[in-house]
Each structure stands twice: as structure tokens, then as C-alpha cells.
TrEMBL record:
Gene3D superfamilies: 3.40.50.970, TPP-binding domain
Cofactor(s) this protein cannot do without: Mg(2+); thiamine diphosphate
GO MF term set: acetolactate synthase activity; flavin adenine dinucleotide binding; lyase activity; magnesium ion binding; thiamine pyrophosphate binding
Residue span(s) of domain Thiamine pyrophosphate enzyme TPP-binding: 454-502
PANTHER family noted in UniProt: 2-HYDROXYACYL-COA LYASE 2 (PTHR18968:SF166), THIAMINE PYROPHOSPHATE ENZYMES (PTHR18968)
GO-annotated cellular components: acetolactate synthase complex; endoplasmic reticulum membrane
Mode of membrane association: Single-pass membrane protein
Family in the record: Belongs to the TPP enzyme family.
Organism of origin: Sinocyclocheilus rhinocerous
Catalytic activity of the protein: (2R)-hydroxyhexadecanoyl-CoA = pentadecanal + formyl-CoA; 2-hydroxyoctadecanoyl-CoA = heptadecanal + formyl-CoA
Plastid among keywords: no
Protein name: 2-hydroxyacyl-CoA lyase 2
Keywords: Endoplasmic reticulum, Fatty acid metabolism, Lipid metabolism, Lyase, Magnesium, Membrane, Metal-binding, Thiamine pyrophosphate, Transmembrane, Transmembrane helix
Pfam family, one: TPP_enzyme_N
């Protein structure tokens, strides 16, 4: 082979290696982008949050995240300091459920983040759009034994739809925008962003930490000093260039026209249809009140669960509160609108195998849960439950469920509630009768009250006795059944609805007087 060809190949490979090294070290980017500025990364985070309509950030203050909190406060975003990181996440979860926006919690590194794990898992199972912001050790010190330094990404990847670790200040804006969009897209849920401390503080502060205390000696010392200077430059290069802060598109699955039409045919032929509404029926973009208006003309009896409790108001003739198992056995059509066949529906065993079953859910795994064993959907739609109900009602205009069916279920309701009332009137020797307490509080509830139910069996009792007066006026832990959510939920609820009374119910077991 010609030696010139060999030399050319060798030089080309060497040049390619040099260019790759320049790229990896950020040398090329640094040549064309500004580095120094009195601004800091916390301001970039706050700018994006404000552009997305975030009004509250819940926290337990720590040094790793202080720049974010200071910047948010300057922009009018209210910082709410709690006494435990789990409470901060529970409060953000409540804000997400009640406001239709993303709830935001910011906590410090290490134990600050590990304290949030239960609350983040609760938000995941409740399908709440939530952004968890976490501090972290400096980029060059991760894995080297820095204060509160652990592998935080591995901890949250199983719990969150999206996890990111910011490595340069210029990444902050696009990363936060993406996280907020992912939290709301598809099936909503929590997302996590890790911010190393050197991405949040100003250049001149970080520079002092990078500067060697003594003049480097020897070749290796000079190489290390150069590497540190280059890392600092790359960390801040291009950080303050103008970037789009506006929200990215949120992607929500919808039923197809063919799917809606097939459901129209099934519902129009049903004599004993039943609708089971879950929390997904309250999700944006369809207002909960619009879902109510779509359901009322159909006249189909409805069972409400999760966040959908209260959707039909206090005394709707369509809202059936008792004897759900018997109703499902008699029904010839069941519409699961965001309701999952998990333990709450005996894994699907309560459904009549002869019934036509329409299942609508944004999450495919939840849509078909246990359908391989105990039930089979006639139509399974991966889509948004709220918008589906609006389209179904519009297509069924003029159709109404036979009156005798909801009337018979309502009569059964009255009999069961009379029995519950008699249990509430029973005298107890040493303790308050919890059913009596719930009945009495329900009688005194203001029209704008928000009910926060916390604690095992007490939540179940409250669910069939108390009557939320309207949509989005009920908060409970959700499918994870976490105890201790109440304080954070009540805090978030009161901030969202300052004019409303927030009733917080918590009971684990009977305590001696």
C-alpha cells in the first residue's frame, strides 16, 4: 500500500480523534458562546416554572437548591416550606389534582430525596403530574464521597416517567420544559430532575471552588488545572442565551371515531347500563363540569371513585353510592371510564361475564389489567376518559337510559343508607362512633368544602357516607393507600382554594381515652 495513503489514514484518524476530544470536552462550543454572567441556574429554573403557570413550590429548604427557591420567590412564585420532604410532595400532589397544572416540590440532595420516595410512589399510582426537583453533589464530585452524594437517578427511574441529571447550565431550560410536558402527557405522573449544585450557583461562586489553592507544579498538576478550567468554562458556556420558555405540546391519547361509534351502538342497545368513573375522568383538558353535563342527558347510573367523587353534585339521581357489586352483576353493559380492575373491583371478578364491557384508560397496562384472567373487554380504548364521554354523549343525543333501571338502584341506595344511619346511631361505651362523626360532619359541610380523607378504614367509611358538593372536592391517597397524606394534601388544597373550607379526616384505630 502507498505510504502516503497510510499516512493520510493515520492523520485522518488522529484528526478525528482530536475533534471528538474537543467535542467531548466542550472546547468547540466554548469558542462561540458566552460564559460569565452574574446570573445563576436557579433563575433559569424559575423562568420556566413561571412560563408554565406554576404558582407554588413546596420544599424543605437546603443549600443545594437555595438558588432555585430565591429566584422563584423573586418572580412571584410562592415558596411553601414544610417540615418534612414527604409533606412537600404530598402538597404538590394535591395542587396537581385540584388545579390541572403540574405540582412542584424541591428538596435537597441525598436524604432530602430519599425522604420523598413514598410520596412520589403515591403520586405515580394516583397518576398525578408532579415535578420533583432534587439537589445533588457538584458534577466533578459525584461518586467521590461528597456530602449527601448517592445514585439518585437509579432511585427514581422506577418511580418517574422521566429522569434527568443536568450536566451544564445551558441544559436547564430545555430539560425543565421537557419534564413538565412529559408529566402531563399520556398517563400523567411524576418526573424528576437532578441539579448538581454547581449548575445552580453563579459563575464567580463556582469559579472559587474550582480554583487550585496553590500554583500547580509539574506536568500532571498543570493538566489537572487545565481540565478544571475547561470543565468550568463548559459548565457555563451558552448558559444565558435567549431560549424559548413556553410550554411544549402535551400529547394525550384519544379514542378513534370507529371506537366511539362502536360504543354508541352498544350503549344504545343496553337496558341496564352502568358507568364507573375513576380519577382519569377529571383530568385536563376536559373540565370536570363538562363531563357532568355530558353524563346527565344519558340518564345512566354512575358509580364514582377516586377524584371523580363529587362530580355529579350532592344529590344527583344518577349517582349510585351503595350496592355496587349487585348492580354490576345485574348490568348488561359496564363502562369503565378511567376505572381499573384491580383490588378495588376484585380484580375484575365482580363484573358479569355476560355484560358488554367498554374500558377506557390512558394507560394500556391499566386498561387491560387482569383481563387475561377474570374479565374480557368488549371494547378496549386507550384514550382520555373525559373527552370520550363528551363525544359519546354528543353521538347519543336524544337517547336516554330506561328510567326504571336507575330508579331501582336508587331505591336500593336508600335502603342501604338507612341501615348505615342506624349503625351511626348506635351508642358506644368508650369511643366516638366514627359513622356518627362522618354523618354529622357531612350535614354541616359548606357547599365549597374540600374533603381530605386520610387513614385506612376511615377513608372507606367516608367514601360511602360523605357527599362532596361538587367536582374536585375530594382528596384521598389513591391506589397506593398511603397513610399520612392528609397534612400535605390539606396544605395544597387550601392554597389552591383559599376561599374553601378544607375538612381533614384522619383515623388509624381506636385509641383509649
Amino acid at each position: 500500500m502507498d505510504i502516503s495513503v497510510v499516512l493520510g489514514c493515520s492523520l485522518g484518524a488522529a484528526l478525528g480523534g482530536v475533534i471528538l476530544a474537543f467535542y467531548k470536552l466542550g472546547l468547540l462550543y466554548q469558542l462561540f458562546h458566552k460564559r460569565q454572567s452574574p446570573r445563576h441556574g436557579g433563575e433559569s429554573v424559575a423562568d420556566v416554572l413561571r412560563a408554565h403557570g406554576i404558582k407554588f413550590v413546596f420544599t424543605l429548604v437546603g443549600g443545594h437548591i437555595s438558588p432555585i427557591l430565591v429566584a422563584c420567590e423573586k418572580l412571584g412564585i410562592r415558596i411553601v416550606d414544610t417540615r418534612h420532604e414527604a409533606t412537600a410532595v404530598f402538597a404538590a400532589d394535591a395542587v396537581a389534582r385540584l388545579s390541572g397544572t403540574v405540582g412542584v416540590a424541591a428538596v435537597t440532595a441525598g436524604p432530602g430525596l430519599t425522604n420523598t420516595v413514598t410520596a412520589v410512589k403515591n403520586a405515580q399510582m394516583a397518576e398525578s403530574p408532579l415535578l420533583l426537583i432534587g439537589g445533588a453533589a457538584a458534577t466533578l464530585l459525584q461518586g467521590r464521597g461528597a456530602l449527601q452524594d448517592i445514585d439518585q437517578m437509579s432511585l427514581f427511574k422506577p418511580l418517574c416517567k422521566f429522569c434527568a441529571s443536568v450536566r451544564t447550565v445551558r441544559e436547564i431550560v430545555p430539560t425543565v420544559r421537557k419534564a413538565l410536558a412529559v408529566a402531563q402527557s399520556g398517563t400523567p405522573g411524576p418526573v424528576f430532575i437532578e441539579f448538581p449544585i454547581d449548575t445552580l450557583y453563579p459563575y464567580h461562586v463556582v469559579e472559587k471552588e474550582f480554583a487550585p489553592k496553590n500554583t500547580p507544579k509539574g506536568l500532571m498538576g498543570k493538566i489537572i488545572a487545565w481540565y478544571l478550567r475547561n470543565h468550568l468554562s463548559n459548565l457555563f458556556a451558552g448558559a444565558w442565551e435567549t431560549r424559548d420558555l413556553s410550554p411544549l405540546p402535551v400529547h394525550i391519547p384519544h379514542a378513534t371515531e370507529d371506537e366511539v361509534q362502536r360504543c354508541v351502538e352498544l350503549v344504545s342497545r343496553a337496558k341496564k347500563p352502568v358507568i364507573l368513573l375513576g380519577s382519569q375522568a377529571t383530568l385536563p383538558p376536559t373540565p370536570a363540569d363538562d363531563v357532568r353535563k355530558a353524563l346527565e342527558p344519558l340518564g345512566i347510573p354512575c358509580f364514582l371513585g377516586g377524584m371523580s367523587r363529587g362530580m355529579l353534585g350532592k344529590n344527583s339521581p344518577l349517582h349510585i353510592r351503595q350496592n355496587r357489586r349487585d348492580a354490576l352483576k345485574d348490568a348488561d353493559l359496564v363502562l369503565l371510564a378511567g376505572t381499573v380492575c384491580d383490588f378495588r373491583l376484585s380484580y375484575g371478578r365482580v363484573l358479569n361475564r355476560r355484560s358488554k364491557i367498554i374500558a377506557v384508560n390512558r394507560d394500556r397496562s391499566q386498561l387491560l389489567k387482569n383481563s387475561d384472567m377474570f374479565w374480557k373487554p368488549t371494547v378496549a380504548i386507550q384514550g382520555d376518559a373525559g373527552s370520550f364521554l363528551l363525544r359519546l354523549s354528543k353521538a347519543l343525543k336524544g337517547h336516554r337510559c330506561p328510567e326504571e333501571w336507575p330508579r331501582s338502584l336508587k331505591e336500593g341506595d336508600a335502603i342501604k343508607e338507612k341501615a348505615n344511619r342506624s349503625k351511626a346511631d348506635e351508642k358506644t361505651e368508650r369511643h366516638l362512633n366514627p359513622l356518627s362523626v362522618l354523618h354529622r360532619v357531612d350535614e354541616l359541610l359548606a357547599e365549597d368544602s374540600i374533603i381530605v380523607a386520610d387513614g385506612g378504614d376511615f377513608v372507606g367509611s367516608a367514601a360511602y357516607i360523605m357527599r362532596p358538593r361538587g367536582p374536585l372536592r375530594w382528596l384521598d391517597p389513591g391506589a397506593f393507600g398511603t397513610l399520612g397524606v392528609g397534612g400535605g394534601f390539606a396544605l395544597g388544597a387550601k392554597l389552591c382554594r383559599p376561599e374553601s373550607e378544607v375538612k381533614y379526616f384522619f383515623l388509624l384505630k381506636k385509641l383509649p381515652l
